[in-house]
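Checklist before submission:
- one chain only
- standard amino acids only
- sequence pasted in full

Submission:
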Amino acid sequence: MKINVVGRRIDVTDDLKGWFEKKLSKFDKFFRDDAVAHITLRRERGKEILELTITSGGTFYRSEQEDSTFQNALDEAMEAIERQIRKNKTRLEKRLREGAFLPDAASPTETVEEEGEFKIRVKEFPIKPMSPEEAILQMNLLEHSFYVFINDETGDTNVVYKRKDNNYGLIVPSDEE
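Returned file contents:
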């Protein structure tokens, strides 16, 4: 697995990078060699926040954790991603490394109830061209956490969403896979 570590307004030491590589080697049993882990580190209000995103086979696995140290936050993020994988193992088996779920003496015997069928509620609504600012206004008026719209400048379908830090995000389509 390839690992990218980025610090937002902090320096990332080689020791910390090495520690991350050692800890993330635990995921080698799940992911193929083409997997990429992105770790973003930042400090806010005395807390250390770690975002861990793993991309493998076109599927994203993500966790954001805050703790007193980046090491503790990484442990929590890894546990969260492993729970996500185990909870959805039937759906993910084709995308993960073959044999990822064979019994392993070194792994804990934690039982995680696998998620059943997805219950999908279909909702239809007209999508009209608008600016991202107008879409945010519409989202807030509806009291939703996200809003799908057609960007009037690009003609692409975009999504605006409210972030945990009360800022807004914009999701745009990418040509990359």
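Reviewer check: The chain is about 25% helix and 30% strand.
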